[in-house]
Design brief:
473 residues, mainly alpha, 21 helices, 81% helix, 0% strand, globular
């Protein structure tokens, strides 16, 4: 982002005394949106993945690939980000996109789970024939639509965080908002474990349908409560953008020119890719790992998410209020990478010893290190964002993360299938996935060492000035 827009708070103070500093209460209120996303992520990657892989016996690469389609449509994030920069809805750049996108998410998710049941029935009656692959394709399409809705809501929401915050309170805002994501996962895991407990094959479909109705409806309500009135009261977008009165002139093409002006953008893009892949290879396989190696029930394995959530809440709090202010964003992210790699070692050790308690501890510590890594990386990401095109930059970072997460989800399922074909025992197949994650996290540390925020700020400011000069000619 342009240095003078965020590192010099007096600019906003002089120009707009009506734009107050965001309050702690509002930070927690905004976190309700992320809490809702946590609830929805539990449905797809805490419940639906293991239903398909362990209950319906869908091959891991097909199950994970279908789910991952919601992330493979991530290039739309840049477009939705640019749209929110240049096309306000009822005078607001972010809020309308957030509300519409979240409502459509809920609808798509419920429809997707209905397709899952049809897929399972087709496998049972017709085997892997053309109709079954047709249902796989339809499921992938539904998750693709779901992903477009996520892009339409999440990218403008993250841009809103840039709009309403300053450099001195951004890490705190990020820590609180992303911690609330984990609150949603913890709450969802606890409620889901209760609702799924004692479930039999005969009651499985009805119970999961109930989850996929109640959770999305609750999330729509949380979204409205989280964002109502925030943009109008706190947004500094019009003040920070030097083209606030000519918003439509910042086209997607011009935004992309600013986006690619600094080589630091590419370096950070690469770091986000490697970090996210290394975090999420386990995403489609952790619950099946608990089911098949530790003989946990579907409710118990879904309940592992609460331990991860407890850990990440602690990690977010430590990072936002102590570690990042003490070590800085970049060094804190490097620490998070190292600790995360060590946690995958504990996950492997728990399988060797067949100790459920050690697995739960490993997941808890994995959450802690992920919280440190996520908070510091997101804070660093927002520093690598130009205010005039915040939506576009956030879309680019969202693209990197979503494409990496999609690739990780698909690759995790494929690696599991490869492991099953190579090894005669169950544990080594899962161990292959966790070992590769640890190595990838160390590679991410190396890429992060090359990131230079000052270089980014200098080059992006020059690029913005060049674009504006061309508009004036």
């Amino acid at each position: 982002m342009a240095t003078e827009h965020l590192s010099n708070p007096p600019l906003g103070d002089v120009m707009a005394p009506s734009r107050p500093k965001i309050t702690l209460f509002t930070m927690f209120r905004l976190g309700l949106f992320q809490m809702g996303l946590g609830l929805l992520s539990l449905l797809t990657l805490g419940v639906l993945n293991q239903v398909m892989i362990s209950e319906l016996r869908i091959p891991g690469v097909l199950a994970a690939g279908a789910i991952a389609m919601y992330q493979f449509v991530a290039p739309a994030r840049i477009w939705f980000g640019q749209m929110s920069d240049s096309r306000p809805i009822r005078g607001h750049h972010r809020t309308g996109y957030v509300w519409i996108g979240m409502t459509l998410q809920a609808i798509c998710l419920f429809l997707a789970v209905q397709v899952v049941w049809q897929l399972g029935a087709s496998v049972e009656t017709a085997g892997w024939a053309a109709p079954t692959y047709g249902w796989v394709g339809l499921l992938a399409l539904m998750f693709g639509c779901y992903g477009l809705c996520i892009s339409a809501s999440s990218t403008p929401f993250t841009a809103l965080l840039v709009d309403i915050s300053d450099e001195d309170n951004r890490s705190k805002l990020v820590g609180i908002v992303w911690a609330m994501l984990m609150v949603g996962i913890v709450v969802g895991a606890i409620v889901g474990e209760v609702m799924l407990s004692g479930m039999t094959p005969d009651t499985l479909q009805a119970g999961i349908n109930r989850l996929f109705i109640l959770f999305p409806l609750a999330v729509i309500g949380l979204t409205v409560i989280a964002t109502a009135g925030v943009e109008k009261k706190y947004s500094r977008y019009a003040l920070r953008s030097t083209v606030a009165d000519r918003e439509e002139q910042i086209t997607l093409g011009r935004s992309l020119r600013i986006l690619t002006a600094s080589r630091q953008t590419g370096i950070f893009f690469g770091f986000l890719l490697m970090m996210t892949i290394s975090l999420f290879l386990q995403q489609p396989v952790l619950e099946p790992y608990a089911r098949e190696v530790f003989q946990m029930t579907i409710g118990e394995s879904a309940g592992l998410n609460k331990y991860w959530g407890y850990g990440i809440l602690a990690g977010m709090a430590l990072s936002g209020f102590w570690i990042v202010p003490k070590l800085g964003k970049k060094r804190s992210a490097q620490l998070g990478c190292l600790l995360t790699a060590m946690c995958f070692g504990l996950v492997l050790l728990s399988g060797i010893t067949q100790t459920q308690g050690l697995l739960k501890l490993a997941v808890l510590l994995f959450g802690l290190s992920s919280g440190i890594l996520t908070n510091s990386a997101v804070s660093l990401m927002l520093d690598l964002t130009a205010a005039e095109t915040a939506g576009t930059f956030v879309g680019a970072w969202g693209l990197a993360q979503a494409m990496a997460q999609a690739s990780a989800t698909l690759l995790g399922g494929a690696l599991l299938d490869i492991g099953r074909s190579v090894f005669t025992q169950t544990y080594p197949a899962f161990a292959l996935v966790f070992a590769l994650e640890a190595m990838g996290m160390l590679v991410a540390m190396g890429l992060l060492a090359r990131v230079n925020v000052q270089e980014f700020q200098t080059t992006s400011k020059k690029a913005i000035a060049a674009v504006l000069e061309q508009e004036l000619e």
